[in-house]
Amino acid sequence: MSTPLPFSIVIVEDDPWYGQLLQYHLSLNPDYQVTLYTSGQELLHNLHTLPDVVTIDFGLPDMEGRELLRRVRERQPELPIIVISAQSKITTAVELLRMGASDYLVKDEYTKDLLWNAVLKIRETSRLRQQVQQLQTQLQEKYDFNRLLKGNSPAIQRTFHLMERAAQTPVNVSVTGETGTGKELVAKAVHLKSERSKKPFVAVNMAAIPTELLESELFGHEKGAFTGAIGRKIGKFEEANGGTLFLDEIGELSLPMQAKLLRVLQERELQRVGGNERIKLNVRLITATHKNLAEEVKKQAFREDLYYRVIGLPIELPPLRERGSDILFLAKHFLEEFCQEQGRPVPALAEETQVRLLAHSYPGNVRELKTIMELAAALCNGQEILPRDLLFTPATSGADLGLLSEQRTLREYSRHIIRHHLDKYDHNVPLVARKLDIGKSTIYKMVQDGEL
Ligand SMILES: Nc1ncnc2c1ncn2[C@@H]1O[C@H](COP(=O)(O)OP(=O)(O)OP(=O)(O)O)[C@@H](O)[C@H]1O
Predict the structure, then answer these.
(1) Ligand 1 mean position to 180 CA, how many Å?
(2) pLDDT for residue 433
(3) Where are the domains positioned within the chain?
(4) Same CATH topology for 145-318 and 321-448?
(5) What is 7-139's CATH superfamily?
(6) What is the ipTM of this complex?
(7) Superfamily of domain 145-318 in the CATH hierarchy
(8) What are 400-443's pLDDT values in tens digits?
C-alpha cells in the first residue's frame, strides 16, 4: 500500500511574525506540510507545486488580495483559497467569496483556531470529492461495454463501436438479432453509458403481455378506466421518464397498438387510459426485435411511419454460430464466472469438448451456451469438461447428431468442421483459422497432407 502524501498548505503573509504563528499552529498536525511565502509573486511562481490549500493575506504589499485571488483562480480553478484580512467589511467578504474564495477570516485572536477548522473542512471536502471521483471511475469501468458484454470477435468489436456512438447521442436505437444474442444487454449497456445513466432503465417485452393489457401497461390507466382498474396505474413510459425505455420484441405489436405508440412518440406526451391529463415525456427509446422489420413493413405488418421513428441507430447482433472465436471465449468466460460464484476450481476444456462446442449451431445463442457451460461445470469430474458433460437441448442437437452418430475420430470431426468452414468462407484460410481459433498452419498442413 502506498503512503498517502502529506496535505500541503501554503500561507502567504508579509508579516513574518504572524505568518510563522499560523505556520507553527497548523504544523501541529503531523499530516500537514506547511510552507510560508511572503508575497503574492512568490505564490504565483510556485503554483506548479500544486498545494492542497492556500491562505492569502488580503493586504499584501506587492498585490492586492482581490487581484491575487483572480490570478490564482485563473490558473487553478479548483484550488481552495482562504482569505485572511485585517478588515471585517461584509461587502469585501461577500465579494471575495463570490470570486471563488473558500472562506474569509478576519485577523483577530480567534483566527488561528478558525483557520484550523477551515482547513479541516476543506480537507474533508477534498477527501469526499476524491472518493466520489474514484467511485464514478469504478462505475464507469463496470459499465464499459466489454465488461458487460464479453467477446473478442471482430463482429462484437463492431457492435461495441456502434454502442459507443449510440451512448453519445440521444437518438433512438434499434437492436436486431436472434433470441439470446444479447439484445437486452446491449440496451442496458447503452443506457448505463449515456447521460441518462442515473435515471431509470425500464424494459418491457411486448410478446409477454396480453394484447388487451398492453395499452395500460405502456401508458398507465386511471382508476375506473375499465372493469378491474381499481386504482391509478403508472405505465412503463412514465416510469422511464427522464431515462430509457427498452421495448423488446417490438415486431410483435398489433397494428392498432402501433398506431397508439406512434402518436405518443410523435407528440412526446401521453394520456393514461381513461384520463385527460397530458403527461410530457422525455424518454429515449431502444427497441429490439428478432424479426426483419423492413420485411415486416413490406408485408404491411409493421407501419412504415413507426418504422422510421424507431429505427434510429440500428445495431445488429450476429448469431453466435457466426461469431467464430467468441464461442470458446464465451464458453470459458461462463465457466469461470460460474465456478467463481460457486467457489470451486475452474475445470479445463478437453480438446474434444472444444471441437464439440464449435460444431454446435446454438439456436439459443449466448443464452444457450451459458446454460450448457453452467450445467457442464456441475456435471463434470471437477478437473476437466468432457464431451459427455455437454447437454445440448434436444431441439437443437438433432442437427449435430448426423455428424456425431457416426463413429468418427476427433481428427475426423476436426477435418469435417474445417472443411465445412472452408466451403462456407470461400477457402479463405486466415479467416477460417480466426473463426475456429486455430493456427493457419494447422489448416495448411492438413491441406498439404491431403486431409482436406
Ligand atoms: N456478449 C455477452 N457476454 C456475456 N453475456 C452475454 C452476452 N450476450 C448475451 N449474454 C447473456 O446471454 C443471456 C441472454 O441475453 P439477452 O437477454 O440480452 O438476449 P436477448 O437477445 O435480449 O434475448 P431475447 O431475444 O430472447 O429477449 C443473458 O444471460 C446475457 O447476460
Answers:
(1) 5
(2) 84
(3) 7-139, 145-318, 321-448
(4) no
(5) Response regulator (3.40.50.2300)
(6) 0.98
(7) P-loop containing nucleotide triphosphate hydrolases (3.40.50.300)
(8) 434 444 445 667 667 777 877 787 777 788 888 887 877 777 88
DSSP 288-357: EESS-HHHHHHTTSS-HHHHHHHHBEEEEPPPGGGSTTHHHHHHHHHHHHHHHHHT-PPPEE-HHHHHHH
Instruction: Quote the pTM value.
Output: 0.60
**Does residue 139 register a pLDDT over 70?**
no
What residue ranges line ligand 1, CB within 6 angstroms?
149-151, 177, 179-185, 248, 290, 366-367, 370
Average pLDDT of the segment spanning 75-104 = 90
Mutate to test the pocket of ligand 1, among 252, 367, 368, 374 (most ligand atoms within 8 A of CB): 367
- Can you tell me the distance from the alpha carbon of 323 to that of 20, in angstroms, rounded to the nearest whole number? 70
> Do the strands 284-289 and 348-349 form a parallel or antiparallel pair, or are they unpaired?
unpaired
What's the CA gap between 177 and 381, in Å, rounded? 35
Q: Which residue has the cell 492438413?
A: 446
- From 144, 153, 181, the mutation candidate for ligand 1 (largest count of ligand atoms within 8 A of CB) is 181
| Residue ID of nearest Cα to ligand 1 atom 9 | 182
Per CATH, the number for 321-448 is: 1.10.8.60
Which ligand 1 atom is the nearest neighbour of the CA of 181?
21
pLDDT confidence of residue 10: 97
Q: Long-range contacts for 83-92 (Cβ within 8 Å, ≥24 apart)?
A: 83/55, 83/56, 83/58, 84/13, 84/55, 84/56, 84/57, 84/58, 84/111, 84/115, 85/57, 85/58, 85/59, 86/58, 86/59, 87/58, 92/58
pLDDT-based confidence at residue 266 (cuts at 50, 70, 90): very high
Mean pLDDT of 55-73: 93
